[in-house]
């Protein structure tokens, strides 16, 4: 127990990390990035069904509208007649999932291994909002996605947060290897194997972080805090403050 709050188990912490698309629809938040360069703060309004607005502290606002993805299909009948067309792909939360008693998802369906959220700048933003890479490992490599320790619960800005010290597991499978949440030796190796080039000024592989403090907002699964605990991180850490969840956002905000 921590201040009367029950510490999560490894299983429940990972379940929260995979459940974000089914837990919320809109959010207002501020993100403070703490990279190797100047610190940066942005304000964001997100309706994951419609649009994203980001206001950096330096630069102009950015608005991105969501477009429902479509896929092509082709078929033929017994007489050899062919037909083809397109169909809209469902949003992740439209796909039935098995939900546990605590409201969290026990397994992601194959058609929703990851949720392609509205993105700002890079896929680290997307993984911050849907951190399934911290929950489930790669189907190509054996082993868990992450190794967890020091799990505890706490109050952060009036919201219940589940904390863990996180290491890359042998099955860690970041959404994008060049902008992984855990930018450590394994992500670096995967990026190299995929033909990526290490950024100029990146630390040598043996000086990359191996441990991170990660906080997940209990109600949404959003990563609200990520800080490297050792090594030298090129991406750095970040802190998120949630100002509102599942509110009715003004449509004019996205114009």
Structural summary, described in words:
The protein is mainly beta and about 260 residues long. It has four helices and eleven strands, in the order ααββββββαββαβββ. Strands 4-3-2-1-11-10-9-8-7 form a nine-stranded antiparallel beta sheet. β10 (about 225-230) and β11 (about 235-245) form a beta hairpin. It is globular and about 65 Å long. The N and C termini lie far apart (about 45 Å). The model has no long low-confidence stretch (mean pLDDT about 85).
Supply the key terms.
about 260 residues, two-stranded antiparallel sheet, mainly beta, 4 helices, nine-stranded antiparallel sheet, single chain
In short:
The protein has 4 helices and 11 strands, in the order H-H-E-E-E-E-E-E-H-E-E-H-E-E-E. The protein has 255 residues and is mostly beta strands.
């Amino acid at each position: 127990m921590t201040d009367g709050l029950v510490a999560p188990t490894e299983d429940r912490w990972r379940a929260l990390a995979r459940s974000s698309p089914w837990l919320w629809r809109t959010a207002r938040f501020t993100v403070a990035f703490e990279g190797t360069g100047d610190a940066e703060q942005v304000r964001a309004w997100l309706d994951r069904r419609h649009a994203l607005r980001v206001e950096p502290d330096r630069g102009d606002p950015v608005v991105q509208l969501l477009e429902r993805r479509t896929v092509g299909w082709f078929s033929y009948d017994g007489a050899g007649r062919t037909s083809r067309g397109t169909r809209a792909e469902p949003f992740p939360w439209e796909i039935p999932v098995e939900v546990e008693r605590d409201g969290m998802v026990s397994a992601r369906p194959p058609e929703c291994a990851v949720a392609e959220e509205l993105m700002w700048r890079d896929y680290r933003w997307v993984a911050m909002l849907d951190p399934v890479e911290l929950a489930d490992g790669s189907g190509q490599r054996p082993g868990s996605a992450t190794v967890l320790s020091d799990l505890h619960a706490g109050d952060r800005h009036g919201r219940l947060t589940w904390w863990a010290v996180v290491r890359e597991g042998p099955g860690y499978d970041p959404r994008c290897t060049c902008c992984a949440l855990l930018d450590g030796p394994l992500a670096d190796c995967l990026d190299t194997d995929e033909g990526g080039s290490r950024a100029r000024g990146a630390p040598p592989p043996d000086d990359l972080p191996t441990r991170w403090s990660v906080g997940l907002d209990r109600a949404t699964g959003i990563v609200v805090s990520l800080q490297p605990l050792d090594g030298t991180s090129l991406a750095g850490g970040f802190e998120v403050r949630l100002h509102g969840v599942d509110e009715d956002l003004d449509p004019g905000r996205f114009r």
